[in-house]
Design goal:
By secondary structure, the chain is mainly alpha-helical. The chain has one domain. Helices cover 73% and strands 0% of the residues. The protein contains 6 helices and no strands. The longest helix is centred in the N-terminal third of the chain and has 30 residues. The radius of gyration is 16 Å and the shape is elongated. The two termini are 14 Å apart.
Length: 130
Amino acid sequence: MFKKIFFYSITTAILSTIACVIYNRIYFFATETDFTKVLNIGTLIGINLLACIIAGIGYWALTTWLKRTGEIVFNFAFSIISFATVIVPFWMSLPLTVKTPELFPGLAVPMHFFPALAWFTIRPLFIKEK
């Protein structure tokens, strides 16, 4: 079961990273602001991979320990954590060389929901109902 959840996490990370890169490009062309010094493709890959692997470990642990309610508890926790991390872009101090730093939260905040969105989208392909 852990192997399936691990591949589920990796697939989710890939989908989430693709969504982040596409959104990053759309945001760049819409606002003409470049945040690649702070949020580049390598950072997006690393953050999404880390988030999805941690989510996979959490999912495995909760569904192992809480047989009946583990998935519900995980989904609720993942959603709450996604909302709670939205505050991070507002706390960040950007380098002084970044032009229009006030637009950074508009780029970063929606990306906090991409791992959860990818997780819930890919779920039917990996987790079958009993």
